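Quarterly update from the structural biology core.
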Amino acid sequence: MIHSDRLHKYFSGVHAVNDLSLEVKRGEIFGLLGPNGAGKTTTIRMIVDILQPDSGTITYDGEAFSDGVRQVIGYLPEERGLYQKSMILETIVHLGRLKGLDSRTATERARKWLKRFGLGGSEKRKVEELSRGNQQKVQIIIALLHEPEYVILDEPSSGLDPINQELLRGIIEDLRNDEKAIIYSTHQMDLAERLCDRIALINKGSVVLQGEIERVRQEHGSNTVVIEYEGEGAFLTNLPSVVEARVQGNHAELILQDDAQVNDLFEGIGDRVIVGRIERIRPSLNSIFIQTVGTANVPDELLKAQEGRRESQVREI
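Predicted structure, tokenized:
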């Protein structure tokens, strides 16, 4: 288990991480979520001992960080850190040996991983010859080659196409089944939504929401309704049972009062629009984040992701 307690970190007077506490259990995927600049990478760098917290503590299965702990961590940084002029296999084996593997074991494992990621036969190519996505695969291999107990992945899907994102998802689920403690840090909440067991949403260095993902969704939107319709739906915002509404084109996502029912909407809608679909849904993590911190505090990237989700829902009708 990875446990951080009341972490604080300042940079030039900026409170980058503010009283942050996390607990990541073995056999679970813990999502460290939030927009770029929220403090996720700073938190991870403290957990892996690249940065020292100004206050607070971090333990691994009850022990403080040590060289022994370092050897059983698999860390994928967000930024690229590969030797561009080196051959792929040579790079992987070299970094595997730094984690305690002998040359033969490192080579055998590297070849298996390269084959799994569709890079078999590329062992002698230089890193600089690879695409961005394939370089990301190599970095993932390096992070996992020594079969670590603690797996910490910072934006692991960066550069990967949808097929390889699904491949990575399967690999991470296998690690969970092997009782590894996994931190999955990302600003892509739709990916985390499909993968993580528990999450912490971070904004401006502070945890604003934390818990089991299904419980979080139930607690923050059991009364969320999607309506697809023909006509002008701006009036939906003002219906008596509606607490909040996001209306775009012929699609609306409505948050109802706690005691309201879907049927309560029909009297207000009447024949003002032609309803094609009305359905109670669980809100997305994007929606929950926006509800929690307020639109004024949400970066454009998450608002755009929310709009993209709505457009996708419309296309599915």
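The CA atoms of residues 41 and 154 lie 7 Å apart.
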